[in-house]
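Researcher: We plan to redesign the surface later, but first we want a full-length starting point. Tokens attached.
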């Protein structure tokens, strides 16, 4: 599902800095990995490159068999909409939309509407234990519930690749555990490939495999 070969990224400037060097990773559908590493090692940069939000200086990234280097900006946007789901530390839930309307946004972007969209939203909200909050406004939800809305929104269009960047950084321990278990279960259920970037050993332990990002690349922990 995701194949990375010899990926490198250097930021130019007065103090040129190489943040990624020789990264290799193969991630099949249904597999969920955690990426750890010290601050400044390039974890978020790696996610940005995988998402096509930035371009590498060397190496290749293929998502579902498509080499990102062959796509222009418009095609990358379409790929992100159709094939990827994102979960961030900040929930990015729109405050003026209901829970159901927030979750439906990715479906609107890919042209899924009507009864099919409603059914997908309902099923996904049930999967994240928010079936009774569809008409609620975000201000009525707890932090853990808001992150579950974000997970539902990331998964409602059945992406092939899920990227999560410190998704529990704003949650208490109990809410974080529930959210991480839910994220893992949903990645598995949808047979998506999943990458969790985290500083937390407890969060990383929920993944199938833990990788550590260093100056020399990715290595198993």
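Model: Full-length starting sequence:
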């Amino acid at each position: 599902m995701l194949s990375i070969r010899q990926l490198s990224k250097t930021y130019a400037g007065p103090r040129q800095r190489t943040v990624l060097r020789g990264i290799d990773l193969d991630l099949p559908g249904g597999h969920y990995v955690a990426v750890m590493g010290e601050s400044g090692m390039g974890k978020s940069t790696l996610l940005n490159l995988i998402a096509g939000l930035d371009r590498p200086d060397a190496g290749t990234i293929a998502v579902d068999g498509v080499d990102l280097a062959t796509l222009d900006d418009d095609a990358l946007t379409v790929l992100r909409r159709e094939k990827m789901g994102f979960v961030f530390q900040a929930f990015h839930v729109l405050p003026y939309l209901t829970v159901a309307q927030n979750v439906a946004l990715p479906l609107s972007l890919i042209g899924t509407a009507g009864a099919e969209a409603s059914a997908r939203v309902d099923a996904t909200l049930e999967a994240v234990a928010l079936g009774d909050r569809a008409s609620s406004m975000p201000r009525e939800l707890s932090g853990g519930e808001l992150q579950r809305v974000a997970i539902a929104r990331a998964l409602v269009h059945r992406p092939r690749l899920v990227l999560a960047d410190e998704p529990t950084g704003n949650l208490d321990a109990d809410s974080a555990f529930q959210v991480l278990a839910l994220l893992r279960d949903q990645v598995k259920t949808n047979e998506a490939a999943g990458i969790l970037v985290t500083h937390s050993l407890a969060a990383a332990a929920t993944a199938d495999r833990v990788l550590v990002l260093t100056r020399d690349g990715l290595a198993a922990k």
